[in-house]
Structures are given as structure tokens and as C-alpha cells.
Amino acid sequence: MPSDWPSAATRNNYFIAINLQPFSLYDFKVYRESANGIIIAPVLSLTVRTKREGIHQLEAVVCSQTEIVLSWIFDQGSKKRKVFFTVIMTPETHAPIQTDNTMIDIHKLQPSTTYTFEVCTHDTNGKMKRPGVKRSATTYD
């Protein structure tokens, strides 16, 4: 193992890697140490790709005949800035909703109707980035 490689020693069965770059490949190798301190060849090798910056795991939960709750996770990577979202719905029974929250409660929907929600972010100049992440849900009868 070259001396300039980052390394971590732990007696636990896990370690946490922080400050990784979004959408990048990383190779991890787990070595075993013998009783006399000699490092033995890798016993485990894995390659992982970190997720992209942006919206992940958009969920739409139907709460009633007229209400759906949307929630999502937003990963902005190393960029720490104020982020806001626009939620566009089809059919367009509501105007686009702007929020800085990652959960919204949408009321006054029609029963037995399928809605498609698109959650979009905005660039640093405030321009909406499309396409966003989409999810559909149908209100109760």
C-alpha cells in the first residue's frame, strides 16, 4: 500500500468516509493485520460510486381523497448555498409551488385523480433546472 494513499485503521467492523466528491468512483480495500502487526493482502476490495448532487428519493404519500404529501432528499455536495425548489403538478390544478423545504403538503386535490409531480431545483442565478425528478400518485376514491 503506497504511503501517500489515505488510510484508516479501526478495530470496528466499519469506517465512515467523508468529504467525497459527488458522482465519483472510489476503490476501497480492506486489509487484515496479523497478530504480530504485519499487514496481509486485501481480504475485501470494492468500488463504489457516490451519488449525484440533486434530488433523491422523491416520495408521494396519498393521505386522503384530496391530499398528497411530497418529500425528498436533496444532496448539494460540497456547495453550501440556500436552495429552493419548484414543484410543478399535472394536471395543472395548482400554480407551481416554490419552497425551501424538502416536504410539502398539497391540499384541495380532486378524488380519484392521478397527479404527476415534478420537483425542480434552481441554478445560482435563480433559473429553474428542468427536467426535475418526477413521481406520480393517485388520490383515493
Output mean pLDDT: 85
Q: Describe the global form.
A: elongated
Computed structural class = mainly beta
Q: Kindly report the name of the CATH homologous superfamily of the largest domain.
A: Immunoglobulins
What's the N-to-C terminus distance? 63 Å
Low-confidence stretches: none
Total discrete domains: 2
Main-sheet strand order equals 6-5-8-9
CATH class of the largest domain: Mainly Beta
The level of helicity is: under 10%
CATH architecture grouping of the largest domain: Sandwich
The largest β sheet comes out as:
4 strands, antiparallel
Number of helical stretches of at least 4 residues: 0
User: How many strands appear in the DSSP assignment?
Assistant: 9
Radius of gyration: 22 Å
Strand content: 35-45%
- Helix-strand topology string: EEEEEEEEE
CATH topology-level fold name of the largest domain: Immunoglobulin-like
Organism: Schistocephalus solidus (Tapeworm)
InterPro entries: FN3_dom, FN3_sf, Ig-like_fold
Protein name: Fibronectin type-III domain-containing protein
